[in-house]
Amino acid sequence: MFRRLALACAALLSVVSAQLTITSPGTNDWWVASSQNTISWTCTTSTFLNFTILLSNSNTAVLAAPLAIIAVQENYDCSKTITQQQSAQPAGTGYTVLFASTLNSTDIYAQSQPFEIKALGSSYPTTTSGVGGTSTGTPSGSAGAAQATKTGGTLAEYVPVGMSMVAALALGLVVA
After folding, report:
1. What pLDDT is stored for residue 127 in this prediction?
2. How far is CA 42 from CA 47, 96, 150, in A?
3. What is this structure's pTM?
4. Whether the predicted pLDDT of 63 surpasses 60
5. Is residue 10 packed enough to be buried (19+ CB in 10 Å), middle (13-18) or exposed (0-12)?
6. Is Signal found in the keyword set (predicted)?
7. DSSP labels, 26-67
8. How many beta carbons lie within 10 A of that of residue 126, not counting itself?
9. Distances from the Cα of 144 to the Cα of 80, 120, 124, 175, angstroms
10. Residue 13: burial class (beta carbons within 10 Å; 0-12, 13-18, 19+)
11. Which domains does the chain have, with CATH numbers?
Protein backbone atom coordinates (compact mmCIF):
# COMPACT_ATOMS: atom_id res chain seq x y z
CA MET A 1 0.00 0.00 0.00
CA PHE A 2 2.74 2.47 0.98
CA ARG A 3 4.71 1.61 -2.16
CA ARG A 4 1.72 2.37 -4.41
CA LEU A 5 1.16 5.67 -2.64
CA ALA A 6 4.84 6.59 -3.06
CA LEU A 7 4.73 5.72 -6.77
CA ALA A 8 1.55 7.74 -7.26
CA CYS A 9 3.12 10.74 -5.50
CA ALA A 10 6.26 10.46 -7.62
CA ALA A 11 4.17 10.35 -10.81
CA LEU A 12 2.16 13.36 -9.69
CA LEU A 13 5.31 15.32 -8.88
CA SER A 14 6.74 14.62 -12.33
CA VAL A 15 3.58 16.00 -13.93
CA VAL A 16 3.49 19.05 -11.63
CA SER A 17 7.16 19.80 -12.32
CA ALA A 18 6.55 19.70 -16.07
CA GLN A 19 6.88 23.19 -17.40
CA LEU A 20 5.90 25.03 -20.52
CA THR A 21 8.29 27.89 -21.23
CA ILE A 22 8.16 30.38 -24.09
CA THR A 23 11.76 30.73 -25.30
CA SER A 24 11.15 33.26 -28.08
CA PRO A 25 10.32 36.14 -28.33
CA GLY A 26 11.97 37.67 -25.30
CA THR A 27 13.98 40.57 -23.98
CA ASN A 28 16.75 40.24 -26.58
CA ASP A 29 14.61 38.56 -29.25
CA TRP A 30 12.16 41.11 -30.68
CA TRP A 31 9.64 41.01 -33.48
CA VAL A 32 9.33 43.26 -36.52
CA ALA A 33 5.86 44.76 -37.12
CA SER A 34 3.81 43.38 -40.01
CA SER A 35 6.44 40.72 -40.74
CA GLN A 36 6.81 37.00 -40.26
CA ASN A 37 7.90 36.31 -36.67
CA THR A 38 8.57 33.11 -34.76
CA ILE A 39 7.30 31.89 -31.41
CA SER A 40 9.26 29.01 -29.80
CA TRP A 41 8.58 26.99 -26.66
CA THR A 42 9.77 23.98 -24.66
CA CYS A 43 7.39 21.38 -26.07
CA THR A 44 9.21 18.36 -24.63
CA THR A 45 8.76 19.45 -21.01
CA SER A 46 5.07 20.30 -21.20
CA THR A 47 2.04 18.13 -20.52
CA PHE A 48 -0.30 20.49 -22.37
CA LEU A 49 -1.43 19.04 -25.68
CA ASN A 50 -2.55 22.38 -27.12
CA PHE A 51 -3.18 26.00 -26.19
CA THR A 52 -4.32 29.35 -27.51
CA ILE A 53 -1.58 31.88 -28.33
CA LEU A 54 -2.34 35.44 -27.27
CA LEU A 55 -0.46 38.69 -27.71
CA SER A 56 -0.64 41.15 -24.82
CA ASN A 57 0.81 44.54 -23.94
CA SER A 58 1.25 46.06 -20.49
CA ASN A 59 0.09 49.42 -21.90
CA THR A 60 -3.69 49.23 -22.45
CA ALA A 61 -3.47 52.23 -24.81
CA VAL A 62 -1.44 50.01 -27.18
CA LEU A 63 -3.49 46.82 -26.77
CA ALA A 64 -6.62 47.03 -24.59
CA ALA A 65 -6.88 43.27 -23.99
CA PRO A 66 -4.93 40.15 -25.00
CA LEU A 67 -5.41 39.40 -28.69
CA ALA A 68 -5.76 35.79 -29.82
CA ILE A 69 -3.39 35.26 -32.75
CA ILE A 70 -3.70 31.44 -32.91
CA ALA A 71 -6.90 29.80 -31.61
CA VAL A 72 -5.54 26.26 -31.19
CA GLN A 73 -1.81 25.50 -31.38
CA GLU A 74 -0.54 21.96 -30.91
CA ASN A 75 2.25 21.72 -28.34
CA TYR A 76 4.35 19.17 -30.26
CA ASP A 77 5.19 21.73 -32.98
CA CYS A 78 7.74 23.47 -30.64
CA SER A 79 7.57 26.68 -32.72
CA LYS A 80 5.29 28.60 -35.02
CA THR A 81 6.03 31.28 -37.57
CA ILE A 82 3.19 33.77 -37.53
CA THR A 83 2.05 35.71 -40.57
CA GLN A 84 2.38 39.38 -41.34
CA GLN A 85 -1.31 39.86 -40.50
CA GLN A 86 -0.94 38.17 -37.09
CA SER A 87 1.88 40.53 -36.15
CA ALA A 88 0.29 43.70 -37.51
CA GLN A 89 0.65 45.58 -34.22
CA PRO A 90 2.18 48.99 -33.64
CA ALA A 91 5.87 49.21 -32.86
CA GLY A 92 6.46 49.49 -29.14
CA THR A 93 7.65 47.85 -25.93
CA GLY A 94 5.84 45.88 -23.22
CA TYR A 95 4.51 43.08 -25.43
CA THR A 96 4.25 39.51 -24.13
CA VAL A 97 3.09 36.25 -25.69
CA LEU A 98 0.70 34.19 -23.56
CA PHE A 99 -0.19 30.51 -23.90
CA ALA A 100 -3.64 29.88 -22.44
CA SER A 101 -6.31 27.23 -22.20
CA THR A 102 -8.28 26.86 -25.43
CA LEU A 103 -11.48 26.91 -23.36
CA ASN A 104 -10.63 29.77 -20.98
CA SER A 105 -8.16 32.42 -22.14
CA THR A 106 -7.71 33.69 -18.57
CA ASP A 107 -6.15 30.32 -17.61
CA ILE A 108 -2.54 31.17 -18.57
CA TYR A 109 -0.09 28.27 -18.98
CA ALA A 110 3.00 30.33 -19.87
CA GLN A 111 4.06 33.92 -20.49
CA SER A 112 7.06 35.16 -22.46
CA GLN A 113 9.50 37.75 -21.23
CA PRO A 114 8.48 41.27 -22.25
CA PHE A 115 9.69 42.10 -25.75
CA GLU A 116 9.60 44.87 -28.29
CA ILE A 117 7.94 45.01 -31.67
CA LYS A 118 10.18 47.12 -33.89
CA ALA A 119 8.99 49.18 -36.86
CA LEU A 120 8.48 47.53 -40.25
CA GLY A 121 11.82 47.30 -42.05
CA SER A 122 13.91 46.94 -38.87
CA SER A 123 16.49 44.19 -38.67
CA TYR A 124 15.94 41.02 -36.68
CA PRO A 125 18.15 40.00 -33.75
CA THR A 126 21.23 38.01 -34.73
CA THR A 127 21.08 35.69 -31.71
CA THR A 128 17.96 33.77 -30.76
CA SER A 129 17.07 31.38 -27.99
CA GLY A 130 15.61 28.12 -29.12
CA VAL A 131 14.36 24.93 -27.58
CA GLY A 132 17.82 23.41 -27.48
CA GLY A 133 19.69 26.51 -26.35
CA THR A 134 21.10 29.45 -28.27
CA SER A 135 21.97 29.73 -31.92
CA THR A 136 23.60 32.65 -33.65
CA GLY A 137 23.11 34.19 -37.04
CA THR A 138 19.48 33.21 -37.59
CA PRO A 139 16.94 35.99 -37.35
CA SER A 140 13.98 34.95 -35.21
CA GLY A 141 11.48 36.55 -37.51
CA SER A 142 12.76 35.75 -40.97
CA ALA A 143 10.86 33.48 -43.29
CA GLY A 144 13.79 31.07 -43.05
CA ALA A 145 13.86 31.08 -39.26
CA ALA A 146 15.18 27.93 -37.70
CA GLN A 147 12.34 25.76 -36.53
CA ALA A 148 12.76 23.96 -33.22
CA THR A 149 13.69 20.63 -34.72
CA LYS A 150 15.43 17.96 -32.70
CA THR A 151 17.36 15.14 -34.29
CA GLY A 152 19.03 12.14 -32.76
CA GLY A 153 18.46 10.89 -29.23
CA THR A 154 15.88 8.37 -28.08
CA LEU A 155 12.16 8.38 -28.72
CA ALA A 156 11.57 8.95 -25.00
CA GLU A 157 13.20 12.39 -25.28
CA TYR A 158 10.39 13.50 -27.62
CA VAL A 159 7.54 12.45 -25.31
CA PRO A 160 6.11 15.17 -23.06
CA VAL A 161 6.69 14.60 -19.35
CA GLY A 162 3.87 12.61 -17.78
CA MET A 163 2.74 11.01 -21.05
CA SER A 164 3.30 7.35 -21.86
CA MET A 165 5.19 6.35 -25.00
CA VAL A 166 2.06 4.50 -26.23
CA ALA A 167 -0.08 7.64 -25.86
CA ALA A 168 2.55 9.76 -27.63
CA LEU A 169 2.71 7.27 -30.51
CA ALA A 170 -1.11 7.18 -30.73
CA LEU A 171 -1.31 10.98 -30.86
CA GLY A 172 1.42 11.14 -33.50
CA LEU A 173 3.83 13.06 -31.25
CA VAL A 174 6.62 10.64 -32.12
CA VAL A 175 7.15 8.22 -34.98
CA ALA A 176 8.58 4.83 -34.18
Report:
1. 59
2. 11, 16, 12
3. 0.65
4. yes
5. exposed
6. yes
7. BTTB-EETTS-EEEEE-GGG---SEEEEEEEES-TTT-SS-E
8. 11
9. 12, 18, 12, 25
10. exposed
11. 17-171 (2.60.40.2840)
